[in-house]
Protein 1
Amino acid sequence: MSSIKIYHNPACGTSRNALALIRNSGEEPTVVEYLKTPPSRDEVVALIAAMGLPVRNVLRRKGTPYDELGLDDSKWSDDELIDLMLAHPILINRPIVVTPMGAVLCRPSEVVLDILPGAQKGPFSKEDGEVVIDAQGRLAK
């Protein structure tokens, strides 16, 4: 069993790139397709706490009912926002990766490198061709 978990949406390029970076480090993570298997309230609360982010920073706007629900309004409490994430898992921004080194919202995908225990095993380019890890195994930026 891997010590790395990714809350993943296979339709999301950023999520696919983060997963590929994890695999490029030689790890095979536990993949949670959170739209098919949503996390529990306790899991969402724990993930947000582990990332050290305000609840609002974990909300996804694009391609979600965010605007339709009026989530820009400051009237929503953190508990209410979490309830809405549970009712509409697409509102949970992704990918979220948890390793023994911490938890992060991987936007951009290369943020995952900050919490991977192992080095990248080879060069890596994102799906759009952007080089992230060069041929020498170094961060390209």
Protein 2
Amino acid sequence: MTNLKARPFLKWAGGKKQLLPTIDSFLPQSFKKEKKVTYIEPFVGGGAMLFFMLQNYPNIQSAIINDINPHLTTTYKVVRNEPYQLIDSLKDIQAQYQALGGYDLQKEFFLQIRNIFNTVNLSPLDEATYMIFMNRTCFNGLYRENSKGKFNVPFGQYKNPTICDEELIISDSNILQKVEILNGDYSTTESHINGYTFFYFDPPYRPLDSTSSFNSYVKETFDDNEQKRLKDFYAHLSAQGCFEMLSNSDCKGRNSNDNFLDELYKDFIIERVNAKRSINANASKRGILTELLIRNYNDCQGSN
């Protein structure tokens, strides 16, 4: 692996940073040897996998990312298209925040920004600025929406958060120049298949139990019917000759009788891998768990 300069500019629940070496070992050998490949990520989230792939595999000629969250995809576009304007804007809001110098005043400022973000039709630059600001200052760096689509994460308690990481934004902007950014349902990515195409799916995870059902990144829920629809799309792409990998939770690890995902993806190869989860409102549920890596090909280094 290279020494990665570009990395996620947002902290995001379910981020794949810890799993990248494992995921890398399960990539198709043909992908690593092919001279020109198309890389598609229909649920980009924080983008750890995206930045890793683009820096380690220069044979990616075309990259397409998608997310249903319009605030997220707008922020990606601003990082790509207006990095220096974004840096200036973040420096300004960082200076305002730091000048307040106390918890109560900073919390009030955060809540004002959150209210503007939720109620005002912002320019893309302001939307991205507020998105990054709130991500750096909210509780646990979460992104969560209520049923009305409003960001509702409370204020965090970070003493001196880095709101403007100038070097990171420039590095990410440079790497995103070759990336097409979509906002919508994951199924729209099918139209971007071109030649040797590899899909990496990182959808909202199926809850391990009733108390761990954090999949409210957006107001639209991702329930078991959505998991089934995704599996149908996965099978549809596989029949077209695309190479695919999908991550999801290992519900069977918590409940040995829960075979939902094992049954759903029984026609594909399911690997159980160790993963560290650091974002959970319940501290006792952070730590090492197993997750599923599901693929539709055999030729990989990591296979048993």
Protein 3
Amino acid sequence: MLKSLNTAATGMAAQQTNMDVIANNIANVSTNGFKKSRAEFEDLMYHTAKEPGTATGMNSFSPNGVQTGLGVKTAAIQKNFDHGNAVITKNPLDIQIEGSGFFQVLTPDGQVGYTRDGAFKKDAEGKVVDKNGNLLQPEITIPPNIQGIEIGANGEVKVIQGLGDQPQTIGQIDIVTFINPAGLKSVGRNLFTQTPSSGQAITNRPGLNGSGYLSQGQLETSNVNIVDEMVGMITAQRAYETNSKVIQASDQMLQSTNNLR
């Protein structure tokens, strides 16, 4: 009977993790470039009272055996890198990657971070940074007193000094891809970092080698589907409640045993 108590407890813990993941997805439904996650589970070890295929007599074998599962655990939390929808902002430094790839930014500790959030700004020196002040890589500096900024689909950045002047190229935005983007580590602030599981960052010009093109004046929204998350939340809640019922039933059976005279 103690096995069922512990087994149901692992089920409740697993559904709590599932609810935590769903809650984070819902909380980030309005976060630019956010990628939703999904909790994945696997069963624990089994108590084997009789091995499948054990001989039960002359020329006869047990077809199934006797094995009792001991519960469940969280095996992984999988990132879903499906693309979010586009929202038009008309801000010249808002950039969306239409397809695969990540922007590169340099954090204050000298580490390179990767993001799908293309809401960039200018700092006091005219350098292009993200909302947390991390420098876009390769570094681009916008000259003062310009009339306009053009960012091509291939990442070429041009500025217009005067209304009658020709655009001048001042830099190039490259993006990176990974063999296994699901292996990237989420570090918050819309950033990922490279891990041995993700593979090395592969730098590309936008539109080359399977990477996406850039679109100026628009942003990628979160890929969270609120209806799917609500359904998942209800399912997790019911599974949690059912596991708690198993604990109550096991406790009642133990109580009955304890009351025997």
